[in-house]
C-alpha cells in the first residue's frame, strides 16, 4: 500500500513539474520564435497606372491689392483734420488729411481707404503713415509654390482659390506671374507666384488663401505615386522590382527573406525564413529592388506622370512607414532580413 502511495505521489509530482515547465518555458520559446521571424517591410509595392491625368500645383499665401498707396506726413507737426474714414472710396487727388500749418495730403491713386492711422490733433513725424488707399477692384493671391511643382506653372493657367475666412466658397483666378528667385525654409525651396482673383467679392486684404493651379490634362498618361519618386542630386529615381537575387544558402542564416508572405503582409517569402524562400523562389523569380532613373512630367501632388525610364515595369516601390519600427532579430539571423515583409501586392 505504501509503495502504491509513493508511486501516486511521484506521478502527481511529475505532472506538476511538467505543468510548471510548460507555463514558464513555452511562452518564452514562442516569444523567441516570434522575435526571430518578425520582419518589417522596407518597401510596399504600388501599381504603375495609365489613363487620364490632371496635373496641378498648389500654394499658399495671402491676398494683396493690385495697387496700394500709403500717404505719409510731409513734415513733423500736428494733424488739423482727417477727411476720410475706413471703407470710403476716394478719387485720385482727393484730400485725406490736413496739417495744422494748412498743408493738405492727397490720395495718389483712386481706391478704397483701408487704413487710417491718425485723428485730428495727433502729432506726427515726417514720413509717418497717415492713410492707406488700395484698389480693391483687382486683388491678387501672392503665394509660394514648391520647387517640385513650380516648373509646371505658366502665366495664363487657371486656378481655384479658397480663403480660410470664407469657408465653403471657391474663387476663380489666373496666373499672372511666376517668380524666378526661390527662397529656402526648412530645407524646402519655394517660388513666388501671383494669381489674379477673378471674382474677389467679400475678400479682404491680408486674408490667408490656398490656391490650386491647373497645370494641364492628359487623356493617356503613365503615372505613379509621387512618394515613389526620389530626387538624387538633381536626378529623379524610382525603385522597381528586378530579378537578380542569387539562390540563398547557409550564409543567409535562419531568418532568410522572412516576411508575412505573398498577398498578405508581404515579403520575400513566408515567415519561416530561408527554407520558405526556396519554395517561393520560382514564384518571385528571385526579385530584389532596383533603382532606375526616370523623366517626370505633370504632377498633382499625389501622383506624378512618368515620361520615360520605367522599362516596362508594372510596379514601383514606396517606402513603408512601418519600417521605422525595426524588427527584433537574434544573432545569426539573415543577412538580408531587412527585405522581409515586402511585396504584399504580389499575392492573391
Distance between the termini: 66 Å
Structural class by secondary-structure content? mainly beta
CATH architecture verdict of the largest domain? Beta Barrel
Order of helices and strands: HEEEEEEEEEEEHEEEEEEEHEEEE
- Relative helix content: 10-25%
Give a structural overview.
This protein has helices spanning 2-37, 147-150, 274-284; strands at residues 43-47, 49-65, 68-72, 77-82, 89-90, 95-99, 104-106, 111-116, 123-124, 129-134, 139-146, 158-163, 171-178, 183-185, 188-197, 208-225, 230-232, 235-243, 287-293, 295-299, 303-308, 315-319. With 348 residues, it is mainly beta. It has three domains: 41-53 and 221-346, conserved putative lor/sdh protein from methanococcus maripaludis s2 fold, CATH 2.40.420.20; 55-64 and 137-219, Beta Barrel (Elongation Factor Tu (Ef-tu), domain 3); 68-134, OB fold (Dihydrolipoamide Acetyltransferase, E2P) (Beta Barrel), CATH 2.40.50. The strands form five sheets. The protein has a six-stranded antiparallel β-barrel. The longest helix has 36 residues, at 2-37. Mean pLDDT is 78; it is low at 244-286 and 327-348.
Tag the structure with descriptive keywords.
3 helices, mainly beta, 42% strand, Elongation Factor Tu (Ef-tu), domain 3, 6-stranded antiparallel barrel, 348 residues, conserved putative lor/sdh protein from methanococcus maripaludis s2 fold, 3 domains, OB fold (Dihydrolipoamide Acetyltransferase, E2P), disordered C terminus, single chain, 4-stranded antiparallel β-sheet
Amino acid at each position: 500500500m505504501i509503495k502504491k502511495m509513493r508511486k501516486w505521489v511521484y506521478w502527481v509530482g511529475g505532472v506538476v513539474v511538467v505543468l510548471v515547465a510548460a507555463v514558464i518555458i513555452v511562452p518564452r520559446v514562442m516569444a523567441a520564435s516570434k522575435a526571430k521571424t518578425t520582419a518589417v517591410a522596407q518597401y510596399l509595392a504600388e501599381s504603375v497606372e495609365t489613363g487620364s491625368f490632371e496635373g496641378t500645383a498648389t500654394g499658399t499665401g495671402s491676398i494683396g491689392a493690385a495697387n496700394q498707396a500709403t500717404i505719409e506726413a510731409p513734415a513733423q507737426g500736428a494733424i488739423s483734420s482727417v477727411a476720410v474714414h475706413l471703407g470710403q472710396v476716394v478719387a485720385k487727388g482727393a484730400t485725406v488729411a490736413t496739417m495744422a500749418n494748412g498743408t493738405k495730403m492727397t490720395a495718389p491713386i483712386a481706391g478704397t481707404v483701408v487704413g487710417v492711422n491718425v485723428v485730428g490733433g495727433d502729432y506726427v513725424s515726417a514720413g509717418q503713415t497717415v492713410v492707406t488707399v488700395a484698389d480693391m477692384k483687382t486683388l491678387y493671391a501672392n503665394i509660394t509654390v514648391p520647387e517640385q511643382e513650380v516648373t509646371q506653372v505658366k502665366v495664363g493657367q487657371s486656378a481655384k482659390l479658397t480663403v480660410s475666412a470664407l469657408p465653403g466658397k471657391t474663387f476663380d483666378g489666373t496666373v499672372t506671374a511666376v517668380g524666378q528667385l526661390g527662397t529656402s525654409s526648412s530645407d524646402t525651396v519655394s517660388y513666388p507666384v501671383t494669381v489674379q482673383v477673378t471674382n474677389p467679392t467679400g475678400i479682404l486684404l491680408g486674408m490667408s488663401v490656398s490656391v490650386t493651379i491647373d497645370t494641364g490634362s492628359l487623356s493617356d498618361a503613365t503615372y505613379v505615386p509621387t512618394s515613389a519618386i526620389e530626387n538624387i542630386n538633381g536626378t529623379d529615381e524610382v525603385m522597381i522590382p528586378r530579378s537578380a537575387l542569387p539562390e540563398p544558402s547557409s550564409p543567409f542564416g535562419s531568418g532568410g527573406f522572412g516576411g508575412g508572405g505573398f498577398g498578405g503582409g508581404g515579403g520575400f517569402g513566408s515567415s519561416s525564413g530561408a527554407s520558405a524562400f526556396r519554395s517561393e523562389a520560382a514564384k518571385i523569380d528571385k526579385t530584389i529592388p532596383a533603382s532606375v532613373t526616370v523623366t517626370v512630367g505633370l504632377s498633382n501632388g499625389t501622383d506624378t506622370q512618368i515620361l520615360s525610364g520605367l522599362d516596362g515595369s508594372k510596379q514601383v516601390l514606396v517606402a513603408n512607414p512601418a519600417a521605422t519600427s525595426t524588427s527584433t532579430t537574434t544573432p545569426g539571423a539573415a543577412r538580408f532580413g531587412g527585405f522581409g515583409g515586402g511585396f504584399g501586392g504580389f499575392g492573391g
